[in-house]
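Give me the fold.
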Amino acid sequence: MTAQIINGKEIAEKKKVQIAEEVKLLKAKGVTPGLAVILVGNNHASRTYVSNKQKTCEELGMYSLLIELPEETPEVELLSKIEELNGDSKIHGILVQLPLPEHIDEKKVIETITPAKDVDGFHPINIGRMMAGQNAFLPCTPFGIMVLLEESGISISGKNAVVVGRSNIVGKPVGQLLLNQNATVTYCHSRTKDLAVHTSQADILIAAVGIPNFIRAEHVKEGAVVIDVGINRNDEGKLCGDVAFNEVREKAGYITPVPKGVGPMTITMLMYNTLKSAKETLR
């Protein structure tokens, strides 16, 4: 068996066309979805991510605001800027690019963003609503994974899902979203004993551990759906995921590549959340 490739780039492009159409309709009603991104410091990777977000905003007809602050910006100044954006009617989504300098409390920053503009889906109120299956802004990468599964025609209800990784950004929320759709969910992590015993039972396997080529064929059930969230560099400096792609694709039923898998969905779902926030202002 050779796995069917889930092309995240193609699915993301399809979703962006739908979002752009909705943005046009909303602008005709006098509302332009606006996303504010705050970048503290000069982290090269963060700057690249922010640039991609701005570019996508403009492609979809949204208003994009970039606020750049120096590395030494006091925490109180950053929090004040967030409060200012909370009250700005032109801004429907606020994103503070992580990681932040060590002197700034990430938790405090996330909690200062009003839940109504928390398009990253990290505020405890949105996380709580997600846990309860209520209307919420969903974290973008886990949300993107769910859209990939849906668009690929993969049913979730009743399936065994195993999540390898327990981060607050991906692992924990994607497990909850799978549970909300009636999967039976197992979390594995660095202290899990006999990992393959668990992962080889998975109908849906999510790899979000941040270790290059960590998931091998021995970890995968024949015909399983394998979603690779990892973005790593191997010993040769080449981009790779958490899954040994060439090895696992011969055993899985579906698999996401790296790149062009989960990655393109993250920014797309950020745009979706910003549009959703803007639409809420008309209610």
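The chain has a mean pLDDT of 96.
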